[in-house]
Amino acid sequence: MEFNSLFDKRNLVAENLKQVLRDKGYTKVEFAKKSDISRPTLDKLLSSQIDSKTTFDSHMNKVLQTLNLSVKELMLYQSHSQKVNAVFSKNEPEDYEMSSMANKQYECLMEVLDLCSIYY
Fold this sequence. Notes:
Elements: H1 10-24, H2 28-35, H3 39-46, H4 53-67, H5 71-75, H6 100-119
């Protein structure tokens, strides 16, 4: 896979880049500073919203250098983090089931935590 093909695959680049940043423990602010990219530009990279190939290429060069990744490594990246789908407790009754409302709240909380890992 070549660097020139990244622009046409911005959605995949954005998804994989999000996973790399999460797995490496970067916040958006930290990574933006380290890679010398503005935070709004990083947000645009992560949401596939950069329409200029020149701008995209310039910033992706910085991203790949900062992460020490090749184009192939980024495009084939597999996340190493495991998503937690349940909370286990040994003090709950044997026949306990979460109500649908509690389950919705739990899912919402997990989404908030997921967002926090991206932004902070």
